[in-house]
């Protein structure tokens, strides 16, 4: 049995990576996850301890053994499928994947991006209670296989309350945007976690965030066990990097990548200390939030640019430089219980993945560092 220590009890952080919904959707030849044994062995070789994945809880709760046709979130990114795809037997695949992780001593953090299927099942989540209940059903399936001890924590919704990942808020509230710090935003988080915690009090819970950091002092996170915070230098609250490059998170248009390829590295190299200082400032802000709330930090998506891939004129060198800088800054605060080296740590990002030495250097740094939550 793999013992899962509470995040607040850790004295040395874990090295974690994000395999989002790619672990199940990118199964075609050359997509990176067609051979889980190989991918997981390579992850262990690079020194990682854990993986954060999409458990597809809304599909698990509706029909875990069925077949679902999923619509693409984007065509220009290499997370998940860039076109319409089908996945079958989510429950069986999830159990198999977690079991393979257990066999290698890896832990699993469960999350969800609420992938859109043809029926748009995700938009039917009408209340915090329903959100909690679909997670209870998902955890029941894992418990029945004796695998709950592999679960590090449960993130009930990725980057809450972004409408791309939590579209049910629009329908349930009738509002075009719900701020996390609002009464309604807080209620959704608190009440849904309470539903799952009542059934599985031994696990740790959160909602992951990537926004609204400027109001952290007014946000109630008392009902969470960890803060899973995503941070990049290129975010608008950190720097003006994307605005200067001309990258606007285009999902089905290559314009942003063209601008990034032509201008990104040149802009970074023109004043690296400036961009690093913006990242440093935001990392210290998140550490302050940890101290104020008393919650340990987890970061599974980070540290340089938000989006990247193997592409003409896109070199990984400057991205890896920024990621190492961000990691070292975060480790210095001693507030992080789990850290990623980037959000490109998966076999589909070939240029990043094949640099085994770089991964080992950074995961060694993580393992040699300390957590001090006092």
Protein model, in words:
This protein is α/β, with parallel strands linked by helices and 374 residues long. It has one domain: TIM Barrel (Alpha-Beta Barrel). The chain has 13 helices and 10 strands. Strands 7-6-5-2-1-10-9-8 form an 8-stranded parallel sheet. Strands 3-4 form a two-stranded antiparallel sheet. Helix 5 links the parallel strand 5 and strand 6. Helix 5 runs parallel beside helix 7. The longest helix has 22 residues. It starts with 13 loop residues before the first strand and ends in a 6-residue tail after the last helix. The mean pLDDT is 96.
Main-sheet strand order equals: 7-6-5-2-1-10-9-8
Mean pLDDT: 96
Helix content: 40-55%
The helix/strand order is EHHEHEEHEHEHHEEHHHEHEHH
What is the 3D form? globular
CATH architecture: Alpha-Beta Barrel
What name does the CATH topology carry?
TIM Barrel
Mind telling me the CATH class? Alpha Beta
What's the structural blueprint in terms of helices and strands?
Blueprint lengths: L13 E7 L1 H4 L10 H10 L4 E5 L2 H7 L3 E4 L14 E4 L1 H14 L3 E5 L16 H17 L6 E5 L12 H6 L9 H17 L5 E2 L20 E2 L12 H5 L9 H16 L1 H22 L3 E3 L17 H17 L2 E4 L10 H4 L2 H13 L6
Parallel strand pairs: 1-2, 1-10, 2-5, 5-6, 6-7, 8-9, 9-10
Antiparallel strand pairs: 3-4
Helix pairs in contact: 3-5, 5-7, 10-11, 11-13
């Amino acid at each position: 049995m793999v013992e899962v220590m509470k995040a607040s009890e850790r004295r040395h952080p874990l090295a974690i990576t994000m395999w989002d919904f790619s672990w199940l959707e990118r199964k075609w030849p050359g997509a990176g996850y067609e051979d889980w044994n190989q991918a997981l062995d390579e992850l262990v070789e690079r020194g990682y301890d854990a993986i954060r994945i999409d458990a597809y809880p809304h599909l698990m709760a509706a029909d875990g053994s069925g077949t679902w046709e999923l619509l693409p979130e984007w065509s220009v990114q290499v997370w998940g499928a860039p076109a319409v795809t089908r996945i079958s037997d989510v429950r069986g695949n999830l159990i198999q994947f977690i079991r393979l992780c257990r066999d290698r001593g890896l832990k699993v953090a469960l999350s969800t991006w609420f992938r859109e299927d043809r029926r748009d099942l995700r938009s039917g989540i009408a209340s915090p209670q329903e959100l909690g209940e679909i997670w209870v059903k998902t955890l029941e399936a894992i418990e029945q296989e004796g695998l709950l001890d592999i679960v590090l924590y449960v993130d009930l919704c990725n980057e809450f309350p972004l409408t791309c990942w939590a579209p049910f808020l629009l329908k349930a509230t009738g509002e075009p945007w719900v701020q996390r710090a609002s009464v309604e935003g807080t209620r959704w988080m608190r009440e849904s976690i309470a539903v799952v915690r009542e059934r599985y009090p031994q696990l740790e819970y959160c909602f992951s965030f990537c926004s609204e950091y400027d109001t952290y002092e007014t946000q109630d996170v008392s009902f969470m066990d960890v803060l899973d915070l995503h941070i990049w230098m290129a975010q608008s609250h950190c720097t003006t990097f994307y605005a200067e490059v001309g990258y606007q998170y285009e999902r089905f248009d290559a314009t942003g990548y063209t601008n990034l390829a032509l201008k990104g590295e040149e802009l970074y190299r023109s004043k690296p200390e400036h961009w690093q200082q913006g990242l440093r400032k935001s990392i210290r802000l998140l550490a302050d939030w940890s101290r104020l709330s008393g919650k340990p930090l987890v970061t599974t998506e980070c540290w340089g640019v938000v989006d990247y891939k193997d592409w003409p004129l896109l070199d990984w060198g400057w991205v890896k430089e920024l990621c190492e800088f961000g990691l070292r800054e975060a480790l210095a605060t001693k507030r992080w219980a789990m850290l990623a080296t980037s959000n490109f740590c998966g076999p589909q990002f070939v240029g990043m993945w094949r640099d085994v030495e770089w991964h080992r250097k950074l995961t060694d740094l993580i393992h040699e560092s300390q957590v001090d939550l006092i």
